[in-house]
Amino acid sequence: MATTTNYSWTTPDDTALVKDGASAIRSLGTAIDTTTKNLNPSTTLGDIEYRSSTANTNTRLGIGSTGQVLTVAGGVPSWAAAPSSSGPAFRVTGTTNQSITSATATKIQFTTETFDTDNCYDNATNYRFTPTKSGYYQMTLGVRSTYGGGNAYYEIYLYKNGANDAILVSNPAQASGNVNGGSILVSMNGSSDYLEAYVYSAGTSPNIDRSNSFFTGTWIRS
Description:
Blueprint: E1 2-3, E2 10-11, H1 21-39, E3 48-51, E4 58-61, E5 68-73, E6 76-81, E7 89-93, E8 97-99, E9 106-107, E10 112-116, E11 121-122, E12 128-129, E13 135-144, E14 153-160, E15 163-171, E16 179-188, E17 195-202, E18 207-209, E19 214-221
Antiparallel strand pairs: 1-2, 3-4, 5-6, 7-10, 7-19, 8-18, 9-17, 11-12, 13-16, 13-19, 14-15, 14-17
């Protein structure tokens, strides 16, 4: 018996004497029905099919849940939770003044959290931000000194992993009560990287008005 090129459906040869036409048509119809179903295994609104490892047979992927996205896992399509479009964000201040030692880079101990979305800022022990999601973070630091005039020169630093990463402010003598600050984009690995706020004063030992100073950061993108 002859067969079709793509799906190998059985058909009579050109020279065959068809004794039972109805049976031959029924056999061909059954083969077509089976093949068509294998190519369209969906059963539910929203299902999709993809090519399986078996020739001429598709695999059904059931409709996903609300909010899921189509992805690939192990070489086949699948549904997964949509990647988060947001990450950790925080803002901290303080309630009392902090004394700064002259000619020494001193960590500002921000103790009061205005918000800390992912509990990534330590406001009790290390006074540092350790984000749990990798990516780029916009960091901003504003510092208000209670001393001005004379040789009250000071700098404001952003430390990353215990070392100075950026000088955000480098100012000569300022009037008491001025707030100085800066902002910078920082890449973080989402596991061990951490950031801290530091201030350095040359020639004087000013207090930092923590209630009017702030340290803040937010995830921007991966």
